[in-house]
Amino acid sequence: MGGEPLFALVTLALSPSTGVEAVDQLYAGLTQCAEQYHVSVAGGDIVSAPNPAITIALIGRAQTRDGAPLLLRRDAARSGDAIAVTGTLGDSAAGLRRLREGANLSDALVRAHLRPVPHVALAAEAARLGITCAIDVSDGLLQDIGHICEMSGVGARIRASSIALSEELRRAYPDEALELACTGGEDYQLVLVGAADRIALLHRENGALTVIGEVVAGDRHVALLDDAGLEMPLEAAGWDHLRAR
């Protein structure tokens, strides 16, 4: 993470009943997003399949300094690092619920689910400023921080009251807002982990960052803490692609 996206290769698995108009609409959306980030859809493949599937491979280029790549990795967190997040969390999971309840794109939560915004420029700036660890929130905040902890051999302490929640989420699901923010996933906000002064510098230059906790030595455990410093239990853990259902 933290590089410059250049090319995309798109592979479509389509059933024979798929209409041309649906494919045209799909590519219109892909093209719109690609142009926004100066990415070329350079090729791919189309195959026949009983169920539709889309696979996109993105090819990019890392920034370098003195010949070394500037990348944001999962295995670079260190005890004492600050943990910060862009934007608000839980909106996408809430948007999926709202869709199932009949809402459409006029709903801000639905837009958060269907039109996530990749933080390409901010990730690149973080890498330039010396931050070396990050992940995007796709499986759920706590689970994704757990991926960093597992790869880095550290633990994390997250302050529940510091997690940014949108007013739309608070209004729609007041009793479940925190759980949706911690476990819902698909927000595609960035979790950035680094020295507190580097995180503060990134915040001053770019804004929209909230420090929600810190890295601690040891146990690879992610603890969500209340205002008294006690760990809060959550029923859901986040999305696991390989979990039996």
Written account of the structure:
By secondary structure, the protein is an alpha+beta fold. It has 2 domains: 4-61, PurM-like, N-terminal domain (60s Ribosomal Protein L30, Chain: A), CATH 3.30.1330; 68-225, Phosphoribosyl-aminoimidazole Synthetase, Chain A, domain 2. 32% of the residues lie in helices and 28% in strands. It contains 8 helices and 11 strands. It has helices at 20-36, 91-100, 108-114, 120-128, 141-152, 167-172, 177-183, 196-206; strands spanning 4-14, 40-48, 53-61, 63-65, 68-70, 82-86, 133-136, 154-159, 190-194, 209-217, 222-225. A 6-stranded mixed sheet has the order 7-9-6-10-8-11. A 3-stranded mixed sheet has the order 2-1-3, with helices on one face. A two-stranded antiparallel sheet has the order 4-5. Helix 2 crosses helix 3 (108-114).
| Order of strands in the sheet with most strands | 7-9-6-10-8-11
Principal-axis shape equals globular
Beta-strand share of residues: 25-35%
Say which CATH homologous superfamily of the largest domain is assigned: PurM-like C-terminal domain
Mean model confidence by pLDDT: 93
For this structure, the CATH topology of the largest domain is Phosphoribosyl-aminoimidazole Synthetase, Chain A, domain 2
Multimeric state: single chain
Count of all domains: 2
Rg on CA atoms, Å? 19 Å
In N-to-C order, the SSE pattern is EHEEEEEHHHEHEHHEHEE
Major sheet details: 6 strands, mixed
Q: What is the CATH class name of the largest domain? A: Alpha Beta
* Low-confidence spans: none
Which CATH architecture of the largest domain is right? Alpha-Beta Complex
Distance between the termini: 30 Å
**Count, helices:** 8
| Count of distinct strands | 11
Which structural class is indicated by helix and strand composition? Answer: alpha+beta
What percent of residues adopt helix (DSSP H or I)? 25-40%
